[in-house]
Amino acid sequence: MMDNLPFDKVFAKQDGQAERFPGFLLEDHGKHTRAEPKVLAWVYAEATLRTIDFGLENLDTPEAGYPALFMARHTVELYLKGLVPDWETQKPKGKNRHAIDYLKEILSEQLKRDYDEQEVQALSKFLTQFSKLDPKSMAFRYQDGAVVSLRDDPLSDPEIWIDFQALKQSLSMIFEALDKIWGKQNSKA
User: What is the per-residue pLDDT across 156-185, written as a single tens digit (0 to 9) for each?
Assistant: First the structure.
């Protein structure tokens, strides 16, 4: 019976026998930054859209929306930090390292030079809503996340309805646009 359990195989060394290993190699994990930021944002974007689908498939279980909202917030943060590479030096003193409100402001100013102002304002408004909903990237991680996250910045409305179909459509457009903007930034550098 114990031989059939997969637990010991999860983190076991590989002997190279498998034609295609069904997993991933973490090399020097925790010692060096290995993930390519743009690729990391893209894979999180894809995973986010899949978690939104999961939420839509489980509308009778409100908690099914938490992973999608957490992933969406985290993915937006990854994109903003990638598009504002010096984010750590631009972060106001005392500001939580997961805050996105100041990143949104910096990016909006950059985008106004090259993009339609109404589109930039629409993006900025959407990002502001996410920033208020989850200012410290804690609201959807744990059972008490919103209490911890919103203690200092409570939202005025106790009921917040989130249309997951509109969320998926919005994020698909935003992730695609941010990918293109990131690509343009890299081609200028």
Answer: 666 788 999 999 999 999 999 999 999 988
With 0-12 CB in 10 A as exposed, 13-18 as middle and 19+ as buried, what is 6? exposed
Residue 27 lies in a domain: no
Q: CA-based diameter of the chain, in Å?
A: 65
Q: Which domain holds residue 104?
A: 35-188
Structure token pair of residue 117 = 């102002």
Q: Which residues contact residue 81 at a Cβ distance below 8 angstroms, ignoring those fewer than 6 apart?
A: 37, 87, 103
Number of domains into which the chain is organized: 1
Question: What is the pTM (predicted TM-score) of this model?
Answer: 0.85
Question: Looking at the chain, how many residues does it have?
Answer: 189
Most confident of 21-25, 124-128, 142-146: 124-128
Render 41-69 in DSSP notation, one character per residue: HHHHHHHHHHHHHHHHHTTT-GGGGHHHH
